[in-house]
Design a protein that fits this description.
The complex is a heterodimer of chains A (258) and B (389). By secondary structure, chain A is mostly helical. Helices cover 66% and strands 3% of the residues of chain A. In chain A, the strands form 2 sheets. In chain A, strands 1-2 form a two-stranded antiparallel ribbon. In chain A, strands 3-4 form a two-stranded antiparallel ribbon. Chain B has 389 residues and is of the alpha+beta class. Among the domains of chain B are: 38 residues, no CATH class; 72 residues, no CATH class. In chain B, helix 6 runs antiparallel to helix 7 and helix 8 runs antiparallel to helix 10. The chains are: A mainly alpha (258), B alpha+beta (389).
């Protein structure tokens, strides 16, 4: 445990410093959660304490190294690799590989009873827990036969929980954008042509422009999306072109496929 | 003919019927498959299989020697040799001269030549015949496999079961597998984009299989390229003058007939070889007339028409579901659906793309979108955790 306590304040400070870029509103939310998870792991994993620390320290230090100046990355990573190795040398001989531990995770699925809040299941917490589990497994991919296999199916989370959590904020954003673009364009067209808003709506060309604006806002959400869309169009016909290559240079005559 | 081809070794049910394969060359009949997602969600597939349906697992050396012996009994001449190069025909009516090393029980080959009217290459992904006829190159994936023996009680688990692991850790654009063979299992993985990391991917595969292959002893390591698409020119006329002269062609892996998504090639290799041979027989009117490139192109047209839907569907599946970890999670979730399983097995076992009922297709489309949306939403949550924790 002595190894563990210095690690904790550093992760706390790391999470606080990083939280400054996006979504300040969530600041209070996450560090508390990560704290509880660490406590859970150290409490349950008696003999494996050194093991979990070796694993936990690694991603935190990597995050720290990634954010600030690039120059410092190499020496910090080397140091962290050395720490891991010295830990790893002892870990390998004594301790089994790290397991995902959470008091609400049992026998390959989430125990929904433990997620109850005011009598109903708190689906947001289930989504959070599952995201956390997947993140952990992505960082430590491992044995698939643990717990007799995972049987959790995300489809049991009702559709409205997903809509409320993911669709609504994005929809708000996109509707806001569409409204701003629409207002400005209506004003612009009115100032240029003198056609008021009601008359614009009756005009076919303006209705087309409106349609294009809405579609554009839906389809192009980030700058990268323009490139991605072009790539998608190429990709969808690439395989066909590879197959048709045999028939491209046909000059000797002969039957063509349909 | 003395080498042992590295191969997954899975054949669809229709191959047994179409090629009259005897039951004793099939080592195992796989009826259950387990798909395991990046977050270890496992799904069992095979509930919809009828009792007489299975995926046959066999050893290539057994299958190949059976087919060769059968061909010889039917009148073919077997030559145990290593193709080196061939000389193109000098003019109309001239033949190819094939240079090869003859083995025939010897250890060191003796150079020899053979004059033939047409050459069809079925010599695999690194085909020398294809190179000689200038068929062009293709992109390829590399498949790496370790054959290992595991203790008997663990082998029981794999009695009729094959496993497929998906995830960025085991393969960024393909899948990893544990396939049962005669008395051992084959554990392997493959990739197109990260060929240099194949050993790391293989270690991750062993890690994921974990306890199930505990105590395994590896006795053979194999690797081979898998073509990703057909070669640009699968049938050519190589005569030095403008017309006439025999054609050169390719079939199977040499032509690049491996599907995407599942990487299946044995059936298409055998079928393309048979179709090509049938066209040659018909075109030459049982050996009385010389054949030309047009005859081979007829075989290509038939093959493309028959199997193009299969290849295209698998390509679309690969593009949609092997893109990223959330897509792979969605893929595994989709495989739990009975309709999906039924359609998949119908098209795999019998090599037909069945249209299915419209209502079920619509429900499937909605479910697919749902799965993809959920998995991507969770992925966004995971990214946030990555920043904050």
């Amino acid at each position: 445990m002595a190894l563990f306590s210095p690690a904790l304040p550093s992760t706390f400070s790391a999470s606080c410093s990083k939280a400054q870029f996006p979504q300040k509103g969530r600041l209070a939310f996450f560090p508390k959660r990560s704290l509880s998870l660490f406590v859970a792991r150290s409490a349950d994993n008696g003999t494996g304490t050194t093991g979990s620390v070796a694993v936990e320290v690694n991603p935190e230090k990597k995050e720290e190294a990634a954010a600030p100046v690039a120059v410092e990355e190499k020496p910090e990573e080397n140091k962290e690799a050395a720490v891991l190795e010295s830990n790893g040398a002892t870990v390998k001989t004594e301790v089994p590989p790290p397991k995902f531990l959470d008091p609400r995770w049992a026998r390959g699925t989430w125990d929904l009873e433990q997620f109850r809040k005011d009598g109903t299941v708190d689906w947001d917490a289930v989504i959070d827990a599952e995201a956390r589990r997947r993140k952990w497994l992505e960082d430590h991919p491992g044995d698939s036969s643990v717990d007799g296999g995972v049987v959790f199916d995300t489809a049991i989370i009702p559709w409205w929980a997903w809509v409320k959590r993911f669709h609504l904020p994005e929809a708000e954003l996109l509707n806001g954008r569409a409204a701003m673009v629409g207002f400005f364009m209506a004003y612009f067209v009115d100032s240029l042509t003198g056609v008021g808003l009601v008359d614009q709506m009756n005009n076919f060309f303006c209705k087309t422009l409106l349609f294009v604006a809405v579609l554009g806002v839906l389809v192009i959400r980030k700058n990268e999306d323009v490139e991605n869309l072009k790539k998608l169009v190429d990709e969808s016909t690439f395989y066909d072109k590879q197959w048709q290559a045999t028939w491209q240079d046909e000059n000797a005559g002969g039957p063509r496929p349909e | 003919m003395d080498n042992c081809k590295p191969c997954g070794g899975a054949i669809p049910l229709c191959m047994v019927g179409e090629f009259d394969l005897p039951q004793d060359i099939i080592d195992r009949r796989v009826r259950k498959m387990k798909m395991i997602s990046p977050s270890n969600v496992s799904v069992d597939i095979g509930r919809t299989l009828k009792p007489d349906e299975y995926i046959g697992m066999l050893r290539r050396e057994v299958l190949d020697s059976y087919l060769r012996e059968r061909a010889e009994k039917s009148g073919a001449t077997l030559v145990n040799g290593l193709f080196l190069r061939m000389d193109k025909p000098a003019g109309p009516g001239e033949r190819y001269r094939v240079h090869y090393n003859k083995y025939d029980g010897r250890v060191v080959g003796e150079p020899a030549t053979l004059e033939v009217d047409a050459v069809i290459g079925a010599d695999g992904a690194n085909s020398r015949v294809a190179k000689s006829i200038g068929a062009g190159n293709y992109e390829f994936a590399i498949a790496f496999q370790e054959r290992m023996r595991i203790p008997a009680e663990k082998m029981e688990y794999y009695e009729e079961r094959a496993e497929m692991y998906v995830g960025l850790d085991v393969s960024p654009d393909f899948y990893a597998w544990v396939f049962p063979k005669s008395d051992h299992v084959a554990v392997g993985t493959g990739t197109v984009t990260h060929k240099g990391d194949i050993k790391l991917l293989q270690e991750a595969t062993r890690n994921r299989a974990g306890d199930k292959i505990d105590g395994a002893v590896t006795f053979r390591v194999e690797a081979h390229p898998i073509p990703e698409h057909p070669r640009p020119r699968r049938a050519v006329s190589l005569c030095l003058t403008a017309q006439g002269g025999g054609p050169g062609g390719a079939g199977g892996d040499a032509a690049g007939y491996v599907t995407k998504c599942s990487g299946e090639g044995i059936y298409f290799a055998a079928k393309s070889g048979r179709m090509c041979a049938e066209e040659i027989v018909r075109g030459s009117e049982n050996g009385t007339r010389t054949i030309t490139e047009a005859d081979l192109r007829r075989y290509l047209a038939k093959f493309d028409k028959l199997y193009w839907p299969t290849y295209k569907v698998l390509d679309v599946l690969q593009k949609v579901f092997y893109r990223s970890n959330p897509a792979k999670e969605a893929f595994v979730e989709m495989c739990a659906d009975e309709y999906v399983q039924k359609m998949t097995f119908d098209s795999y076992l019998y090599k037909r793309v069945v249209p299915g009922t419209p209502l079920e297709d619509l429900k499937l489309a909605v479910k697919t979108i749902g799965c993809l949306v959920r998995a991507n939403a969770l992925r966004n949550e995971m990214k946030k955790i990555g920043i904050y924790s």
